[in-house]
Fold this sequence. Notes:
- The chain is of the alpha+beta class.
- Among the domains are: 71-141, Phage tail protein beta-alpha-beta fold; 148-205, Ribosomal Protein S8, Chain: A, domain 1, CATH 3.30.1370; 212-228 and 262-417, no CATH class.
- The protein has helices at residues 51-62, 80-89, 98-101, 114-125, 164-169, 190-204, 221-226, 256-265, 420-454, 457-463, 467-474; strands at 2-5, 71-79, 93-96, 104-113, 130-134, 137-141, 148-154, 176-180, 183-189, 209-219, 235-239, 275-284, 288-304, 310-332, 335-349, 355-361, 364-369, 373-380, 408-417.
- It has a five-stranded antiparallel β-sheet with strand order 11-18-19-10-12. Strands 13, 14, 15, 16 and 17 form a five-stranded antiparallel β-sheet that branches.
- A hairpin with a 2-residue loop joins strand 8 and strand 9.
- The longest helix is centred in the C-terminal third of the chain and has 35 residues, at 420-454.
- It is flat and about 85 Å long.
Amino acid sequence: MTVKRSGTYVILMCLCLSGCLSSSQVPIYNKPQPQSGQPIKLPVIADATNQEALQRLEPEEIKPDPLRQKRVSLTVEGPMGHLARCLAYEGITVILDDESRGLEFSGKFTNTPIDRILSAMAERCGGGGVVAQRDGYVYVGKPTEGDYDVAVFAVPSGDATDWIDVYSLAGSERVRANGIGDLIVVRDTAETITRVRRFHEAVSGCRREYHIELVMVELTDSQTRSLGIDMALSGDQLLQWDGQLDPLTGTFTSSLQATLSGILFGDSQATQGLNAEQVTLHLVEGDEATLEAGDEINVRQRVASPEGTVTDVDTQVFQTGLQIKVRAHSVDAGKARLDIEPELSSVREFVDGLPTIATRRIKSQVYLGNGGVAVLGGFHSSTTQSGGPRLPGTTIASGIDEREDDRRFFIFVRLRFEDEEEDEEIEDEADEDMADEDEADEDIDDEEDDEAADHDPADEDDADLDDDDWEDLED
């Protein structure tokens, strides 16, 4: 296929779906972007019987997309799937069914709106081809045939390909599913699609919540060794520490910063001995939380004259400090994977007035159980031998004694979450205790009943009579 076009190329991927699609049967949703430190909620997928929800979709269907009004020049000849790839270069993601993707298409478009090209593709599909759009995804193909229906879901976490088998189990024998990024497209009978939607809502509501403790701290070389940290660490290292999890209550008895102080100074209350700050991030499985702390630095720009005088000509503002991005994924019932990306930057002004920006970024994946601790290192705090700037500068762990040249900057991470197995064990133990108490109460009641059965009130009356009384009664 030959393609001649004008404009800037932005390489995107053209994705293809199985099955034919209809504008009235393809509710499509994009996963919302998470805000800093805030868990996001998945959109509720409209049920076929939910008329109110379907009515809310109608304005989105007819809402004009500015990108589809973009004018392009194309000369195409070949399978229609190649044309879809050309439109992907223009920022339009076109999804075709299997049959439409292989149809031959030829045409020359000069300064033509993309919307008109999409209409031409729908006409080429024949049989009343349609163009349907939801949130940036465009579907082109024939209407849905027979009793088939199509629905698109944003998977709870990870990639959609990891969820295909799971969602297929909720469908019928005729189910067909495809993954597109974090979206999964399910094609099945209209009756079964309703069951898949309910399954999706149930799965979306079962995402685990995580609490991630972060401690930013500067340590001397001797403190680094005492904590068992590799002196040449540049990345992540798991630490075999006691998680301080009380097995009876299922709660943590001390903070991560207090645990650090206890190991270093033998006193968990001696937090004043640490140049550290602690922050706890709360997020839902599959979402991202971001911590940002730092300052704006004004760096003067100077010009030296031939006579040797220096003149300030401008002031430039730089953002410095610490940024940490964290995303959590469940591995099994008792373990999770944390994707952590800390970035540390600072700005220093040299004698000649030229600013130098120093940035260090580390990407790590650590697998932790409940209460597990890891440390991220590789951020050297002290001034390098080459005269480079000290990285922490004005980070959240500021107030550093600059006379110390052997300090290293570390980020400690501890993962906490509600362990379903532990909760079940605690509930089972509580149930067993209650059952034991009930049995003990029953035993006591049985003993009291036996004593009451053996006890005759007449015997007590007889015991109160002495021999003379008996003689009087006999008389």
